[in-house]
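hey can u check if this looks right to u? its 197 residues, i copy pasted from the old doc so theres a chance i mangled smth
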Amino acid sequence: MKKLLVAAVTMVALASVSSWAQGTIVFNNRISSAVNVPITMAGGNPAGADYWAGLYAGPAGTAEGALTLVGTSPFRTGAGAGFFTSTTMTITGVQPGASAALQVRAWFSGAGAGTAQYGTYEAAVGGGAANGKSSLFASLPLGGIDPVTGNAVVSPNIINNANAANNMDTFALVPEPSVLALGVLGAVALLFRRRKA
């Protein structure tokens, strides 16, 4: 009876560890001078102060609209502009050793010297602030604690030199089309006003 009870408790413990195990990944877009994917603004300058990047993820095969925000990181400034601060993030619902569907989204926060006006990518899109996103891509097998063996698995970077299929692509942040349209209308209005004067 004791052996049966011990076996049952062990199975429940293993099942609970397995169900709670979450994969991890290193959220960065620069590993070295040879392995980097900078993010720029529309004019080609690198994104820097007041810009943020977010990692959106889900199990392999998840559609773009169903991805969830895992975490965010600010862009570096100066010589590091174009690259966001590296941090390890946990992807809920994807176990270590499995692949995840990923997308990087970036935006202008509008913070300046005060509180961020656009705290999320969605808020930046809604407010017409500069924003952009990568194509969907698949991660390498995620890191963390293997639920079967209990061994630690090294967390991969979101970019790597070995397999271009598992890399985010570079992209530029641009204002929403409505903002561009308003800018063009404003320029046209100024031209007409100048001609009348």
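The helical segments are 2-20, 121-127, 177-196.
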